[in-house]
Amino acid sequence: MPTSAEIELQNYTLESEIGRGDLTVVYRGTRKSDGEPVAIKLVPPQFTFDEIFVRRFLEMGKQAARLEHPNIVRAFEAQKEGEHLFLVREWVDARSLAQVLADESPLGPQRTINIARQIASALDYAHQKSIMHGDLSARRVYVAKNDRVIVADFGQMQAIAGTSLVRQGFAIGAPEVLAPERVRGQGPSRQSDLYSLGILCYQMLHGEPPFTGDAAAVLHAQAYEQPKPLYLLNPEVSVQLSETVARMLSKGLELRYATGAEFTRALTVAAEGTAPVRVSSTATGPLDAEPGRPAPVWQKPWFLGLGAALLVIVLLLAGFLGVSAWLALAPPTPQIAADANATP
């Protein structure tokens, strides 16, 4: 990859490299017309052989440029100049959520909910315009002053999905936030983005994502394993809050919350409704409950108590009716025999 000094773009000057991923290198740059600082995501020339990817990259760049939301990093344009394929977005003077977590984790329930609410608002807005994120990791979320949150890189994974780049083994997203259905080969969706938001909440409340290790181990865990309940890891997290996050991490899409707004409302209710509960790390839930998920209503203590009471009533009533029926149907018995067989 050429250095920033060796790359010439018509309207922008590249200054220094600030990050890189599997398919892009990010530079700090300047817009020549007004000197405005920008971030430029450049795709190395060796990855632009796939015409479908190039076409999708440019199209998704145009769509991303139409997103106007206070919690979304503004994209200015996507262009191809000669061998250079790139996206230009606003320069964000903020720390990534990954940096915040490295310095301050865990963040605590209220701060986590505040950050999650802003991410969810950005997701819901983009989803309404049929733009998915596909790689919602802590590196792509920025936290500015007063915890104002800005999400970057909407649409990037939609440009990659289904192209020869994926078939050649290029990553389809950060393993630690990848939803089970994405691991199995499905493209980005509303529900996979919301799963990633659930992972970020888990990470903020615990200090690290639910599954760690090498990429292969993490991907296997995303598809088949249950995360450890948060209330066993952080005494500030109530059982209810833990269960709310666990629902968003369900393997089945239909079991998750339908929107980001619905999820953050549930987080708020869970955090305000019950004080944190300290639970021994050896505590276990009902055997039939899926780990990390709320127990079904028939496993709740109040339901079991009610069921037991109803069972006693039914048995007493059945016994009374049975005896009554037997007495009504039995043939008459001489009184002296009945007296002789009676127990003192």
Q: Estimate what percentage of residues fall within beta strands.
A: 5-15%
Number of strands: 8
Query: What are the secondary-structure elements, in order, as H or E?
Result: EEEHEEEHHEEHHHHHHHHH
Q: In one word, what is the shape? A: globular
Measured between the Cα atoms of the first and last residue, the distance is 103 Å
Number of helices: 12
Structural class: alpha+beta
Helix content: 40-55%
| The CATH superfamily title of the largest domain | Transferase(Phosphotransferase) domain 1
User: Segments where pLDDT lies below 50 for 5+ residues?
Assistant: 274-304, 306-344
Task: Strand order, main sheet: write it out.
Answer: 1-2-3-5-4
CATH class of the largest domain: Mainly Alpha
Total domain units = 2
- Residue-averaged pLDDT: 82
- Largest sheet, described in full? 5 strands, antiparallel
